[in-house]
């Protein structure tokens, strides 16, 4: 994780709210600043599914969305290294956090006319899986997403992170790879924005391009956005030159 993303602490969250009994099942809730929009954003952070990375580095991104008028729900979840983390526990947690949004809306008088799901890197993988299994998801944004687990394993990205997450290789546990791979899972009901930086050295750019090609061939509603001068972390850094393009895609989803 680049240090400059954490060099300036984001504005603190308004509330820390548990959505489950485990100490890692909680989220940071930020209320909309200024003119509130009729939407809430649920953010799933990345970090190759490992517990050495937490939700803190997504705080700047959430604060920027809050400044645009959105309530944000920046969730933590059990990851590899946590008891119950990995597959399927991590997905179960993000599903539970998604289902918790109506309770947040009732308690804090938030509008859920639109609920947008946004994930970065491994968080984008979980966001797309959530959209595949939870048909209440109507819009999902993948930022520099690990959208193909088979290739993540084949390329041994981040020291075989896919095998750590799923518990083995595709040959060892083919059912896990089939049930956990967004590129193989139908998402017929949700609009999908797949956004990537052409200078990404963490997740190959063709992951996003090939994902969109395959999904479009299946008739899914997928939009692809390449940001030429952006790397893996620029997409969640509102100080970066990539931010206006990311912001614009999110605003188009809401409008």
What does this 3D model show about the protein?
The chain contains nine helices and eight strands. With 255 residues, it is α/β, with parallel strands linked by helices. The chain has one domain (3-254): 3-Layer(aba) Sandwich (Rossmann fold), CATH 3.40.50. It has an eight-stranded mixed β-sheet, with helices on both faces. Strand 5 (114-120), helix 4 and strand 6 (139-143) form a beta-alpha-beta unit. Helix 2 crosses helix 4 (122-133). The chain starts with 14 loop residues before the first strand and ends with a helix. The mean pLDDT is 95.
Short description:
The chain has 255 residues and is of the alpha/beta class. Helices cover 33% and strands 18% of the residues.
Keywords:
alpha/beta; single chain; eight-stranded mixed beta sheet; Rossmann fold; 9 helices; 33% helix
Topology:
Layout: E1 15-18, E2 26-30, E3 39-44, H1 59-67, E4 71-75, H2 89-99, H3 101-108, E5 114-120, H4 122-133, E6 139-143, H5 149-154, H6 161-166, H7 174-180, E7 191-197, H8 206-217, E8 222-227, H9 243-254
Parallel strand pairs: 3-4, 3-5, 5-6, 6-7, 7-8
Antiparallel strand pairs: 1-2, 2-4
Helix pairs in contact: 2-4
Average per-residue pLDDT, rounded, comes to 95
Q: Indicate the proportion of strand residues.
A: 15-25%
Order of helices and strands: EEEHEHHEHEHHHEHEH
Q: How many DSSP H or I helices?
A: 9
């Amino acid at each position: 994780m680049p240090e400059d993303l954490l060099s300036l602490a984001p504005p603190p969250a308004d509330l820390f709210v548990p959505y489950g009994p485990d100490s890692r099942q909680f989220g940071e809730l930020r209320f909309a600043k200024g003119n509130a929009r009729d939407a809430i954003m649920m953010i799933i952070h990345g970090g190759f599914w490992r517990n050495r990375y937490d939700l803190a580095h997504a705080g700047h991104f959430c604060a920027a969305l809050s400044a645009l008028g959105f309530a944000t729900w920046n969730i933590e979840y059990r990851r590899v290294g946590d008891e119950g983390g990995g597959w399927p526990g991590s997905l179960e947690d993000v599903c539970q956090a998604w289902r918790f949004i109506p309770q947040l809306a009732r308690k804090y008088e938030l509008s859920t006319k639109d609920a947008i799901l946004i994930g970065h890197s491994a968080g984008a993988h979980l966001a797309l899986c959530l959209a595949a299994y939870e048909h209440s998801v109507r819009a999902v944004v993948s930022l520099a997403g690990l959208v193909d687990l088979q290739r993540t394993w084949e390329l041994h990205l981040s020291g075989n992170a896919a095998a750590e997450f799923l518990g083995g290789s595709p040959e060892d546990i083919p059912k896990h790879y089939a049930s956990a791979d967004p590129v193989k899972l139908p998402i017929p009901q949700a609009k999908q924005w797949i956004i990537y930086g052409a200078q990404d050295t963490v997740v190959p750019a063709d992951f996003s391009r090939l994902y969109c090609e395959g999904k479009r061939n299946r008739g899914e509603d997928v939009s692809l956005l390449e940001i030429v001068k952006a790397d893996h972390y620029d997409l969640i850094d509102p100080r970066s030159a990539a931010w206006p393009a990311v912001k614009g895609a999110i605003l188009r989803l809401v409008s």
